Amino acid sequence: MKVSLIRATLSALLLIPLLIQAKTEPFGQGRQLVSADNYHVLTPRERIAPENKILNQRLEQLLPQLMAESDLDMWLIINREYAEDPVYFTLVPQPTFAARRTTMLLFSRKADGSVEKLSVNRYPLGEPYTSAWAGGDLEQQWQALADEITKRKPKQIGINISEHWPVADGLTSGLHQKLLQVLPSEYQNRLVPAENLVVRWLEQRTQAEIDLYPQIVSLARAVIAEGFSNKVITPGVTHTDDVAWYLRERFEQLDLPVWFMPYVNLQRPGLHCESDSPYCGISGTIERGDVLHTDVGICYLKLCTDTQEMAYVLKNGETDAPDGLKAALATGNHWQDLLTTEFKTGRSGNQILTATHKAADKHNINQSTYTHAIGFVGHAPGPTIGMWDNQGDTPVQGDWPLHANTAYAIEGNIKQQVPEWQDQWVQIKLEQSAYFDGKQVIYLAGRQTQWHLVR
Fold it and tell me: Which fold has domain 3-42+206-454?
């Protein structure tokens, strides 16, 4: 018997348990979507009311809790037009397009635990902010801010400066220096980084947001389903870039902004992919028998998604993906379960990553984990659970603990040999938006457990 035949036979025998798993194990939360036409999308005008309602709830109910947790008496957001603090747009009512001229927000924690919300701004923001000053020149504005600070006598004043968290580093050097100039010396020493508050504000999801999130993620997944269909793909004609641009333009048609350009790639027999390859896939014209992958992210009602899914282009005469590919997708779902089982409140991202590696090694899964928080931005602050180019500990961000009621892109990949491809490795790249309720991880719009099939 030839060596290649022996090798193929052994690989097929080793694959039998995975094939049984692929056919019999009902991986939880699987869901197939068909088209974004099945979902209602609010017009930009219709989005304002729910966005502002959620903002007011967050400011009234969540912010006091987080300021107390961060031991801050006051929090300052100071920014200028075209150089906005990253957190600014999560704090102001819609429609707001910029920090007009210089905009200052002041949050002051009162004795009863509630938070006073002030704007010190030439153009008043309106509810839910009380205008402490309006009109006058820039020097008067800065003096008004200093007066509002000193009259409340805060002991700890949070400002957005941070070495490690970009979203918490929105106070520019020039504005920081001006703040120091206008404050009495005794208050200058009370300025402290607000990074813990900023991260918690951005990562924490309210019940109202969790109620909306499934619709948002469903739209992202449904457009992927359209892209991975014969509505878009003609085998032998359509290029992977054509599919990527369909996704981009379809989201634009729905008034759903993307936060990065969608991309699509393919794998097929004969293309290089090894067990240790960090990335497998190329761009090109789509042919029958190809495996396709896409990565898309949209933002809607202030919440962002991040999704990666896989498709198979059927050969003539085929009605389903080859068993080896179905087994590989099942392994990807198994990896997801191993990862999400390790989500425990208080664990750091690094601890979750280490536990996932141990579990995957026990099950002989060749995987790479790089999961991150999502929310107001796609790559949101929170516990980093691996990086695609670093499967060891991530300092600072990886040390951040897991909190209940936070959302994540469950992201990573597995690689597995496919008998139908002469034991060539295939990379299954998966990413699904989910939230952690404190006990379990729940996919916001289900997850992919079956191949998209292009006929």
Answer: Creatine Amidinohydrolase (3.90.230)
Interatomic CA distance for residues 178 and 194, integer angstroms: 18
How do residues 386-410 score in pLDDT, each as one tens digit? 999 999 999 999 999 999 999 999 9
CA of 159: how far to CAs of 34, 120, 164, 190, in Å?
46, 16, 14, 10
State the sign of the Cα–Cα–Cα–Cα dihedral 34, 36, 37, 39: positive
Q: Is the pLDDT reported for residue 100 higher than 50?
A: yes
In whole numbers, what is the pLDDT of the chain averaged over residues? 94
pLDDT tens-digit readout, 126-156:
899 999 998 789 999 999 999 999 999 999 9
Measured CA distances, 339 to 63, 230, 335, 366, 404 (Å)? 31, 34, 6, 13, 16
Q: How far apart are CA 362 and CA 374, in angstroms?
A: 29
- The two three-digit tokens of residue 424, written as one number: 């060539």
Of the CATH numbers 2.60.40, 3.40.1130, 3.40.350, 1.20.120, which one belongs to the domain with range 71-193? 3.40.350
- Contact criterion met (CB below 8 Å) for 90 and 54: no
